[in-house]
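Re: [ENG-882] Designed sequences occasionally contain unexpected residues at chain ends

Forwarding the minimal case from QA. Structure tokens:
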């Protein structure tokens, strides 16, 4: 009965995938720079960086191998469908790749058999319980394509690399019986929980799990050296008859793997389905002011055995729900921004979420911590939350509050002594206080205007999304302090860093000034929502006066300058997007109109440079700038260049947000949450924005 139900569910999923991938067939299929496979958090984030799954090992977002190996035996003949070993085993022909918001689907063919493999990560932003589960389902559908019956079995293994920072670390392993599931696990012998912090790191505590539901008596599992398990299956269709017990030992010492064989049996034209679960239990996830916080899914005392049971039980329901979610979201993306915009957002979707960790504070409150992947490793960086905020404003404001609350609580504590907002809370996974620039010690290399503007704009956008400003009441004195800082310092910023700190210090930054002016407008909006009409009118008047001054000070004829004192310069004025989104209307539409017209003369093959100084750009800011365009034609001009870059870049990494517009190469950064900013176009359609918000409240 269960297999029949599975077939029905998979048929629904296949239909949704077809809608996602095939409608509007005139559009060229995208070749992603990297393909999401298992994407949950900064430590449990694994990708394919090759066109074909058999051309390389799957990798952690940092580039370290986190190998999965897949082999199919068809009528006794072995074929690889994932990974590069055994080297003498031929690869199946990969015929299709489909990426949806929650799924990645590969299709292979060999010897009259079609094999479809799906990586399902149910990253449903409105269901925090499901979102926080560190479980990805790997599903297969097998069917005959030549009218004949074929004998098929499947092999998959996951290496101990998934559980170590470096492969010289010692690992131990074990197995359990959990109902009808065999559960294999591996982790380090030392278990240094939350000891390390930094950027180019992988987890070395907790345990990787492979959970294999046994559907036939011929299914097998083993924990052994990779060459033994893979070669034995390729040659004989079986696994070694006993686990390797030589432990602890280094992960690279004969490469220990968790392996399983699923005997699919005789396959005809009707597809047969099998699946396994791959999971990671990190035990404790974040250190928050020297308190160790549990992952959100553990907040009520759930343990890994209960998690795996629940995840296995929920699979049919989640398959249907994810299929509906993917189809509906993709249709909305196409409606708002077109086919290529939808491709961009779909690829950014899981990456944005997987650059965060969802944990529970001691009272169960959800807290959501980002990591600055390959930009310095900071945790809870305000100017990383800011560009990603459109994603969470669209899908679930509770997640945005989960990012803002730790920063606001820190900023109002005695430890933060400055009149402006902090930059970060530490180095991931330790949120123990700011480390960037002068940290808590001095104002050197801080981002005072940047972070004050970011926080005020995000809180204002949150209030607009929720229809009230209740969240601000607890922090009102702090928000007022930052508004007063911008009132004094925001119009003509002193020499300082902004979010684009890789470009260095800049005085009189016109785009930073825009942020400050709009943030004051946002503060005035909040005052009005809280019933303080007098203060609202005062600050709106200040913002309006500043806007008039800005237009005069920044004017450079047919465009506006990079810096007030630098004629003949230009820059993307991406911060201006909030004027319309928040309904502030501080600037006439002619400002954006003039800028868009000028930007069209500065386009390179792979997009619009960030400003006149260099040829690099930022992916998130480009889409914000494109959203200023009044016509679909102009919006598509910018998005088409971004799509071309994704399709042709030689830098095969999870989406970088900092790349060169002349040759498409990565300038820096990868796998960051800021790609959530590309969803900003969705906020321009009030009906669609409200529809997704209502879902999260429900």
């Amino acid at each position: 009965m269960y297999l029949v139900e599975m077939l029905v569910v998979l048929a629904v999923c296949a239909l949704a995938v077809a809608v996602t991938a095939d409608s509007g067939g005139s559009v060229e299929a995208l070749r992603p720079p990297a393909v999401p496979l298992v994407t949950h958090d900064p430590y449990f984030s694994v990708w394919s960086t090759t066109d074909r799954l058999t051309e390389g090992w799957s990798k952690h977002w940092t580039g370290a191998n986190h190998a999965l190996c897949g082999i199919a035996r068809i009528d006794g003949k072995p074929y690889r469908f994932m990974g590069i070993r055994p080297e003498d085993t031929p690869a199946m022909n990969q015929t299709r790749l489909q990426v949806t918001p929650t799924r990645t689907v590969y299709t292979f063919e060999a010897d009259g058999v079609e094999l479809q493999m799906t990586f399902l990560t149910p990253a449903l932003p409105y269901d925090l319980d499901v979102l926080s589960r560190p479980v990805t389902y790997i599903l297969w559908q097998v069917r005959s394509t030549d009218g004949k019956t074929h004998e098929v079995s499947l092999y998959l293994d996951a290496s101990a690399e998934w559980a170590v920072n470096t492969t010289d670390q010692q690992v131990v392993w074990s197995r359990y019986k959990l109902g009808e599931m065999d559960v294999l696990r591996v982790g380090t012998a030392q278990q240094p929980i939350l000891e390390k912090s930094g950027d180019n790191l992988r987890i070395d505590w907790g345990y990787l799990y492979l959970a294999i539901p046994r559907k036939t008596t011929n299914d097998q599992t083993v924990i052994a050296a990779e060459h033994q398990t893979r070669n034995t299956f390729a040659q004989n269709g079986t696994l070694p008859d006993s686990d390797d017990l030589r432990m602890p030992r280094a992960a690279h010492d004969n490469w220990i793997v968790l392996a399983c064989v699923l005997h699919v049996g005789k396959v005809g034209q009707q597809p047969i389905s099998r699946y396994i679960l791959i999971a990671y239990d990190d035990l404790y996830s974040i250190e928050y002011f020297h308190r160790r916080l549990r992952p959100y899914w553990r907040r009520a005392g759930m343990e890994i055995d209960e998690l795996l049971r629940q995840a296995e039980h929920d699979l049919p329901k989640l398959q249907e729900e994810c299929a509906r979610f993917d189809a509906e979201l993709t249709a909305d993306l196409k409606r708002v921004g077109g086919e290529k915009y939808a491709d961009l957002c779909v690829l950014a979707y899981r990456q944005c979420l997987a650059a965060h960790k969802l944990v529970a504070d001691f009272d169960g409150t959800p807290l959501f911590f980002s990591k600055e992947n390959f930009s310095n490793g900071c945790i809870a960086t305000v100017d990383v939350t800011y560009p990603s905020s459109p994603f969470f404003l669209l899908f679930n404001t509770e997640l945005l509050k989960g990012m803002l609350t730790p920063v606001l609580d820190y900023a109002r504590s005695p430890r933060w002594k400055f009149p402006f907002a902090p930059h970060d809370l530490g180095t991931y996974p330790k949120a123990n206080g700011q480390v960037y620039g002068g940290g808590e010690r001095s104002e050197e290399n801080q981002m005072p205007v940047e972070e004050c503007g970011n926080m005020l704009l995000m809180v204002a956008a949150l209030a607009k999304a929720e229809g009230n400003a209740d969240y601000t009441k607890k922090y009102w004195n702090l928000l007022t302090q930052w508004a007063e800082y911008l009132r004094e310092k925001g119009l003509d910023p002193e020499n300082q860093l902004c979010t684009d700190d890789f470009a260095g210090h800049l005085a009189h930054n016109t785009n930073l000034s825009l942020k400050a002016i709009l943030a004051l407008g946002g503060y005035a909006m909040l005052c009005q929502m809280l019933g303080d009409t007098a203060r609202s009118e005062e600050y709106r008047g200040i913002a309006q006066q500043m806007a008039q001054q800005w237009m005069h000070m920044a004017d450079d004829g047919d465009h506006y300058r990079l810096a007030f004192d630098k004629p003949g310069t230009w820059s993307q004025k991406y911060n201006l997007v909030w004027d319309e989104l928040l309904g502030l209307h501080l600037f006439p539409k002619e400002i954006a109109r003039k800028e868009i017209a000028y930007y069209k003369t500065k386009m390179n093959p792979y997009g619009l440079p960030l400003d006149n100084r260099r040829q690099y750009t930022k992916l998130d800011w480009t889409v914000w700038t494109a959203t200023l365009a009044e016509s679909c034609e102009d919006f598509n001009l910018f998005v088409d260049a971004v799509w071309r870059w994704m399709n042709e870049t030689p830098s095969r990494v999870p989406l970088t947000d900092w790349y060169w517009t002349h040759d498409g190469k990565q300038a820096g950064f990868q796998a960051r949450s800021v790609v959530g900013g590309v969803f900003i176009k969705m906020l321009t359609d009030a009906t669609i924005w409200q529809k997704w918000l209502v879902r999260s409240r429900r």
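QA comment: On inspection the terminal residues look reasonable. Residues 1-26 have pLDDT under 50 and may be disordered. Proposing we downgrade this to a documentation issue.
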